[in-house]
Amino acid sequence: MRYDLDDLRLFLHIVTEGSITAGAERMHLSLPSASARVRSLEHHAGVALLIRGRRGVRPTPAGTTLARHARDVLDRTARLESAVAGYTRSPTAPLTLLAGGSAMHRLVPQGLVSFLRAHPDVDVTVCESRTPQTVRMLADGEADLGVVVDDEARDCGLRMEALGDDSLVVIGQPGGIIAGRTSLTFSEVAEHPLVGLDAGSSLRRWIEEHLGPHAPVARYRTTVADLGVLVALAAAGVGLAVVPRRAVDPDQPLAVCELQDPWARRHLLLAWGVKDGATPTATAALAEHLREAALSEGRAGGRGWGAAASDRREAVSGHLGQAARGGSTTPASVDAICEGRC
Q: pTM for the complete prediction?
């Protein structure tokens, strides 16, 4: 039998999400349409591919085999399209990816490495950028993709999708002053010596803007440019630090406390630049590698970053729904956006 690539993408989404409804949402399909596609797959395969239950679906042995081979097929197809597109794409026009300081820690490097290895003919320019600037550049067509913070990207009109949790926590030396505490406010944190990122960093400026003019005066023993260095300093007992939870290695000895302030709960979104015509294959492929990097972090870090996909959708659905249903979406652009298996 001949397999439709969109059907394979849909099936992978369903298997990953554990739900036909969630898989349909990832493909921007109605539930009846997605269900019909799955039934058609099963009819042509001559075997059940999903076990349907009250709490969702899971693949049968045949479905697991189909999912494994579908991933290989889609990966090879993306490489084929990228190789051919390389002859039409100017080598002087690399993709432009923008992201804040938090996303630049692990997420962007991991996605970038895997993408560049898989697509040797495509170059990428990566710049650290705060969400407001990233949104402006994407809207003006000056960038292809951006990783942004949800609360600063509301109602911007860009097409976006959830990547994962980026909530902030307080970290310190094991057995130190926050040992045994489960949560703190920033005002309580500021009563102790801190270590932080440089004043001009995107994360530091984001925190200070949300604290407002009446923020408690904090004593920073030192500031650094790198998030990894900051975590190491806090672990060594130099001072407390406020960092994204996803920056904390679960195997690293650290005291970790929830930050109670409402602004500490935030999410990362993948935003798409406004371009004429269909989304380029290379852009869709880079987005797929960023999704895979986010999922990989989730598997490594547990609930703090990856959580359930349904939780991430619920957290951002309030301002993603309108963009996802935008009338300007073409079939080609939807296919490019949905390509992948997150």
A: 0.61
